[in-house]
Amino acid sequence: MAEGVVIALISGGFTVVVALIHKLLKENRHDHGIVADSLNRIEQKVDRHIENHDRGRQNTDDQFPVGTMTFVLNDTLADGVFNPFDDSTSNPYYDQALDFPGLAPGRAVKLIRYDNANNPELLFSGIIINYEYQFRLGGLDTVTVFCGDNMYRLGNTFIDGHNPTKELTGARINAILNRTEVNYPTGAARSIATGTVELGGSSQYAISQGTNVAAYFQQITFSAERGRIFVDREGVLVSQNRIGSTLSNPAVTFSDQGTDVPYNDLGIDFKADEIINLVEVTTRANGNGTASDTASQTEYFVKSLYIQDSLLHDATAAQDLATYLLEPEPAPRFTNVQSWFGSLTAAQRDSVAILEIGDTVLIQKDVLIGGVPTLRSQESAIEGIEHRIDFDRGHTIRVSTSPTTIVYELILDDPNDGILDTNVLG
């Protein structure tokens, strides 16, 4: 399937490129062909802003939704070429051979930013879901373009009924993706971790006819692996192992100290909703695992989490998951941080723009303790990323974070990093 149209948007000291490439073959069973080999970039056709560009979730209890992006095209400025009714030969976007608009739902779309060295960086890769046209008498005609990443594809794909075999989560995910009725791209299109737990097989773990692929993957994540499954900024389907300890290696440091990356908004949570002092996990094969903290129950009352119909293969794995999910005490934490690119150096913009779900960031803030400003630092894992690009104000990014357990590399004979039971090998 051939490459189609590229729209270049240049504004505010950075360049964003949206590429509308091809109609997905799976969407309509035929190729829409080459729109035009001679097409050049059409500049300055985006009206005002890229409204939404969201990927990921806010916290670890949420499911991973479809990653989305929305932007507005100024059709008046483009002389009406985005109009789906304009089938004239002068319209570079209309496929004359197939009598079909070149700009249509199902086209691939990419959002690209050029870094300080003029290297392209993908910020979003997906497909166009919908065009919303606004024709205004005496005013500007605009087109709002709604886009989704490949989670949208998986959310509209269904599995034929079958009995799986007992296997690690990574093998199960790949097996589903490889099925004929799913037919998900292989190779670089996916990055599936091996997994840390085994999922049950045989008829007890049968996958029903018409099971939604995205929903089944969410069930794996929620009821068994407790990792992450999402589409990254380059369009790669990523499955990560159970969230656990990580080496201290933040991709970016956000700070209010006048050094590192400044931020203009910081969210801090300290709430009872975080407490889980009774967990029960039941597998499809009736394996059961229970974990509780009576001291927490006495202090805060019983706050329970029940996971039924877990895909874990036995009671031992269910018990491990129950213990893993126990959170007997609340703790204040940084939940999200926002940074405006206009306040960053070129190098800082380049680092922040390519942050990815699963990366670790360090957040620092001075807080008053006994009336004295005291620096508090917290390394957190990124769970969600939100970009806003407004041509009046520029580019803003917000990342949602979750607590992470930091361990440090064991360095022999080092007085700080060479202590057993404190560092990674302890």
How would you sum up this structure, described in words?
The chain is mostly beta strands and 426 residues long. It is 14% helix and 39% strand. It contains seven helices and 27 strands. Strands 1, 2, 3, 4, 7, 8, 9, 18, 19, 23, 24, 25 and 26 form a 13-stranded mixed β-sheet that branches.
Nearest-integer average pLDDT: 84
Annotation, overall tally of beta strands:
27
Return the structural class: mainly beta
Mind describing the biggest β-sheet? 13 strands, mixed
| Beta strand % | 35-45%
Helical element count? 7
- Tell me the radius of gyration: 24 Å
Low-confidence parts lasting 5 or more residues at pLDDT below 50?
1-48
Q: Describe the global form.
A: globular
C-alpha end-to-end distance: 53 Å
Helix content: 10-25%
Main features:
3-stranded mixed β-sheet; globular
Task: Please give the structural blueprint.
Blueprint: E1 5-11, E2 14-23, H1 25-28, E3 46-56, E4 68-74, E5 94-95, E6 100-101, E7 107-114, E8 120-134, E9 142-148, H2 150-154, E10 158-159, E11 167-168, H3 169-178, E12 190-192, E13 198-199, E14 211-212, H4 213-225, E15 228-231, E16 237-240, E17 246-247, E18 252-254, E19 265-269, E20 278-283, E21 288-292, H5 294-300, E22 304-310, H6 315-325, E23 333-340, H7 346-353, E24 360-369, E25 372-390, E26 394-403, E27 406-407
Parallel strand pairs: 12-16, 17-27, 18-24, 20-22
Antiparallel strand pairs: 1-2, 2-7, 3-4, 3-25, 4-9, 5-6, 7-8, 8-9, 10-14, 11-13, 15-16, 19-23, 20-21, 23-26, 24-25, 25-26
Helix pairs in contact: 3-4
